[in-house]
Amino acid sequence: MDLGMTDRVRPLVEQVRRMVEDEIAPLDTEFQALVGTHPSGDRFQHVPRQLEILDGLKTLAKERGLWNFWLTDSDRGYGLSTVEYAYLAEEMGKVGIAAEVFNCNAPDTGNMEVLERYGEQWMKDRWLAPLLNGDIRSAYVMTEPGVASSDAAQLALDATRDGDDFILNGEKWWISGAGDPRCAVYIVMACTDADAPKHARHTMFVMDADTPGIEVLRPMQVFGHDDAPHGHMHMRFTNVRVPAANIFLGEGRGFEVAQGRLGPGRIHHCMRAIGQAEKALEMMCRRGLAREAFGKKIAELGANFDIIANARMDIEMARLLCLKAAWMMDTAGVRAAQPWISKIKVVAPLTAGRVIDEAMQLHGAAGISQDFDLAHMWTHVRTLRFADGPDAVHRRQVARAELRKYQNEKV
Amino acid sequence: MDLGMTDRVRPLVEQVRRMVEDEIAPLDTEFQALVGTHPSGDRFQHVPRQLEILDGLKTLAKERGLWNFWLTDSDRGYGLSTVEYAYLAEEMGKVGIAAEVFNCNAPDTGNMEVLERYGEQWMKDRWLAPLLNGDIRSAYVMTEPGVASSDAAQLALDATRDGDDFILNGEKWWISGAGDPRCAVYIVMACTDADAPKHARHTMFVMDADTPGIEVLRPMQVFGHDDAPHGHMHMRFTNVRVPAANIFLGEGRGFEVAQGRLGPGRIHHCMRAIGQAEKALEMMCRRGLAREAFGKKIAELGANFDIIANARMDIEMARLLCLKAAWMMDTAGVRAAQPWISKIKVVAPLTAGRVIDEAMQLHGAAGISQDFDLAHMWTHVRTLRFADGPDAVHRRQVARAELRKYQNEKV
Amino acid sequence: MDLGMTDRVRPLVEQVRRMVEDEIAPLDTEFQALVGTHPSGDRFQHVPRQLEILDGLKTLAKERGLWNFWLTDSDRGYGLSTVEYAYLAEEMGKVGIAAEVFNCNAPDTGNMEVLERYGEQWMKDRWLAPLLNGDIRSAYVMTEPGVASSDAAQLALDATRDGDDFILNGEKWWISGAGDPRCAVYIVMACTDADAPKHARHTMFVMDADTPGIEVLRPMQVFGHDDAPHGHMHMRFTNVRVPAANIFLGEGRGFEVAQGRLGPGRIHHCMRAIGQAEKALEMMCRRGLAREAFGKKIAELGANFDIIANARMDIEMARLLCLKAAWMMDTAGVRAAQPWISKIKVVAPLTAGRVIDEAMQLHGAAGISQDFDLAHMWTHVRTLRFADGPDAVHRRQVARAELRKYQNEKV
Amino acid sequence: MDLGMTDRVRPLVEQVRRMVEDEIAPLDTEFQALVGTHPSGDRFQHVPRQLEILDGLKTLAKERGLWNFWLTDSDRGYGLSTVEYAYLAEEMGKVGIAAEVFNCNAPDTGNMEVLERYGEQWMKDRWLAPLLNGDIRSAYVMTEPGVASSDAAQLALDATRDGDDFILNGEKWWISGAGDPRCAVYIVMACTDADAPKHARHTMFVMDADTPGIEVLRPMQVFGHDDAPHGHMHMRFTNVRVPAANIFLGEGRGFEVAQGRLGPGRIHHCMRAIGQAEKALEMMCRRGLAREAFGKKIAELGANFDIIANARMDIEMARLLCLKAAWMMDTAGVRAAQPWISKIKVVAPLTAGRVIDEAMQLHGAAGISQDFDLAHMWTHVRTLRFADGPDAVHRRQVARAELRKYQNEKV
């Protein structure tokens, strides 16, 4: 169980780290400052400089071969293992636009995974190729406003057969990335047979983002932020006609596709969250050494040694657990790795949230202000406690896996 | 130690509760939706409808005699005790603009307290009267960007004597309420003798907000929000000339004034935070009963009974502690009540934050969105862990008070 | 809602505190040292000096009128309120044998309550009178080894009608106080109709401890301690014949009696646990000031200020919650106070356990040794998380009470 | 960074696991039941059957070559890495006498390490050889009653030069293993120059246990247990004469020896604690599936899924952190691994304590009784929060290591 950095990945990590720190971070600041400045007033339109920043960095990354690392265990790209990728993803997690610069950002990687794994050739030609090239972006359209999505069997967006097509009607929300004008393709989970057994009710469709009848109602806000131009959109489907050919695996197999997609996606989020925690701890230490109160460095006051130590211990443990989950994916496959993915899916956002919260507190009021990135990091990792399943659902999975060891029948 | 609702305050609580729920809450929603819609693009300008809402409600409250409850232990207004006021403040905490409607909002109450207690008659005529009438608003100008404000002795905004005046130079930030165009008076803590003993260095000034040389640099953001039009402003003082007559108590007595001010202010924040926790628990229960997953009400799933029970227990304890601190203020005075105020100052924001966080989690992603008030409530109570002193400083006070019981010399 | 010490109870608290500290504590140490020294080797036999200590102190207490305080709201004794009693019980909690000295110890108070409230005159004459006088002791025989007692409907000790008698068969365990040779009466919950509705299956009997067929199998151990000579006994009933007249309230009404009994008993445990927490905090402070490391007092090192402050805040909140539960019992009755009793039943043992644990840690290894009372205090409060219902069951009660506010039907 | 079980160690782990479960566990029960049954009444004397059990099992283990695994990175024994040893130690942690059966028990391994690393040949012949063979046992004599041992520079047992000898005077306590009659050698830290710089004051001596002048005052108790016949003894040294030749490394180098000793010893404790946590989780699951309440398996009630999941996640993280610390020792040496050892030294006992506590709670009162091993496991891991340095000291080490990354000067 080698969880260390391999010789192969070490120089890549170093290159990525440097590029993130030296080249991406300053431009990220500029990029974020430009959000919402489009003359139209539309916060989801990029101004030219934003695209220039993104395209420039992406071109640079591609030229350097720092591209599509996430394509693990594949003969395309580096063929990195998930463990190796974890070290890269951690670095990318430290700056907002970094993951996209290396074409390793959510939700595109998950969607590419679906297209790669379950897509027919024509789908790959049409959508996977430009996604792999970073030319377009994508969205994964699953969550719905009307039901507790933790129980995915309740998802209700209706898809009714009509000749060679399906007609889709209903609402979806929290569709991340759908705000981006470059988002060109949707992968949509819809209910094709509400009376079927629980895990055969849904079907996974793929379609162009500009398919008629799909309407963005509003951006959902995360602690008041619309995360423009990426966005988490609330959408309505009204008589959206999609060819039956646009289905992954077959009617009623939506759950299977969803499960295959979510494993890697979940763990990538965790890797990046650990990067954020690491960054927060660094900020906490630097601030603790830089400021004084009552004649001492803040780091030396009160419980701050304990707080710093706890942060360090928690991060190390979360990272190791994440690496082990990655190693399970590499060696036993996504399915067998599920309880491990659930574990880190609970642990990483909680750990990162706690460390960032302590970092904010040690910074004083500055810590929650625009002068530091901590508040934004915190709200982001807070969303991860819902995204791809709330903590409670993952804890339930872990417990059931544990109890199954002692009992053959289902608990 | 009667911590209950008295017969005198009970009908007032009922009236306030009804007015908050039935009349203020709907208009608060309208008010908040109008923030940032001023044609000038200046988010800190009210549009007429906003002022109409505020003035209308304030007039109504005044007509009903629901006004200036915070003036405890006084022959003006109701002469309520702090314990009695706590029950009212809790209700006001549940809706954004409610406290202002009853002229019980921060930072005005604290500033009125200073003017009432330490102000000369001309100060009262000029600033206290219109504040008590709700005609103007005020700001308390203490925190600085360059120093850890937890150690207030470090505050550095310079006030140098020049004839009958002082000349002020320096920066302040997180000046809450200074964004509001109606804010007409500042109470400013400045350093008049950096070489004096620690608690004799500072002096508390009062001045018109439009005194020349005071410049608002920018609004500070709280998790990305500017809280317009109230705001938490970053300000610069450049050769601001203030008459020496505008000093409370006398040169070098700024700490004394600050201490007198902060006690009640801190506890009012706590009371309102408990109101928010109570509201979050109600939302959690309602949502838990309204939604289903896996064939059960969400409230009945997993650890949710425990989460609800813990929230209820934590809120009850925080409320009782708050009431006891209030009772200490009423019976032993602000100074003797300090360790009690420190206790609740730590407990109430942490408790409210935890309950609101759980409520968000039970709501699923909706919980952090604009569809519910929870995210806004959370960011607000998170600021209370810094405002008026960070948790660590208050814990330190509590510990020192505890240890003093066993040792005469200072620890 | 007066939660303070009344003028009536204040001098009693002072008297009890002094007697506990000055007279009982030293003899308690002597008493405990004598445990297990009976020549017979039977750890549950007192040596004469132990009885001399107990009887001497009890006589003293009785002479001073410090006796049977727990008889609240009664024309016998003081007629104290439960709130008033709380302050006394807290003091008694600080030393092992103190509660018995004042005839206020578990399980006798609960059993006297049952006899007083539900007993017929002959029962009162036979068992209540000597109990009130401190001449005999009693046990409450409910918990069973074979079932999860948290669901009391499962209790299985069988009572079968045979003429004018019932014949009891089965096992009970954790029968506290049944080890004491002075224990003369048992109150026993038995199943008289396993097919009846859930809360009508059981009946509450009273019988002499020496009724033939009752056999003590062994003492149960608490973290390895048998708590001799009090003990928590594992017992077997073999064809134990009890007259049908020895039933409280009537056949099938055992639950009703149990509920009536458990309310006060639970809260008395909580009051004493708070006394223990208070004592642990005092020990923590004294030790923190007495010892040095790295050139500083231990109290000033690391997170110790925070630990002390948290302990103080937690204790205050637990005490206030306990007082409010007591006040609810006084003003609304035991039944209405149930959710409040559940709250403090969860909070007090957890709080006390946490404070004692921190006190142990601050003492270093000495803290868990025989040189300090902390380890014994910790194991005792740990038992309270099971006794009279585990935390989970009480949290469940609190949650259900909370949810009922929003829904008429049962959750 | 291979943290997995190697092919080399896997069959050993399997053999050890089986022997622990099938052969040692039943005899451990018998062994423990015999404690305190010696006719002399001396709890620290073995009865013959106890020695028969120990010797029989040790002979068996030796015959099977399951012996001295802890001798890592050595050409004697297996030459296992610390990572490999971790997997073995975890299994040994699950049953009381198991570690001794394989000659891998504390404090002997640490003491053998000292003799091996710092001992002269005659010391090895005299004490190391029989220790390696399991013929004698040893004690490490460091902690003192009069000072906070967390600051070891305060240790005061006096060693004064007298010709070719040193004369030792003073007290030590918590000397684990010194109760065992087979304990034949002491390694003793004494102060040879109280005026020297902090880390040059002490010297490490080795001596026969029966050196005149050493007196056992009493066994220290751990939550009331004397842990006989192993014991944690309180000892007095009165004019104990030890040759100057009996010093490790040289006068004033006691700290160096102590540091070299404590690294491995600390981590071995952690490995075994993780074994105990794993065992507790298994017990929790089995009990949760075996019992019912309210018509459901206990495992399915309330928050139990979450509790089980949290236990599983916490154990995995603690194990990974422990393995990483072991790997650091293997690859970077004990000194460089110090902050890692401190991390797991904090984490493992806390994690194990939490899991065992939850397991007790899920068992109901039975969980703290003699019917399950949980209470004993809990008190044992609780001692680990003091042994070899309290949590606070280790957190301090971790924080200082963290802060040093950002600052050259000492914090």
From TrEMBL, chains A, B, C, D:
Residue ranges annotated for the Acyl-CoA oxidase/dehydrogenase middle domain, each copy included: 139-235
Required cofactor(s): FAD
UniProt superkingdom: Bacteria
Residue intervals of the Acyl-CoA dehydrogenase/oxidase N-terminal domain: 10-135
Residues covered by the Acyl-CoA dehydrogenase/oxidase C-terminal domain: 252-401
Entry-linked Gene3D superfamilies: Acyl-CoA dehydrogenase/oxidase, N-terminal domain (1.10.540.10), Butyryl-CoA Dehydrogenase, subunit A, domain 2 (2.40.110.10), Butyryl-CoA Dehydrogenase, subunit A, domain 3 (1.20.140.10)
Alphabetical keyword list: FAD, Flavoprotein, Oxidoreductase
Keyword Flavoprotein in record: yes
Cited Pfam families: Acyl-CoA_dh_1, Acyl-CoA_dh_M, Acyl-CoA_dh_N
Subunit organization: Homodimer.
Family classification: Belongs to the acyl-CoA dehydrogenase family.
Protein's recorded name: Acyl-CoA dehydrogenase family protein
Species assigned in the record: Mesobacterium hydrothermale
Source organism phylogeny: Bacteria, Pseudomonadati, Pseudomonadota, Alphaproteobacteria, Rhodobacterales
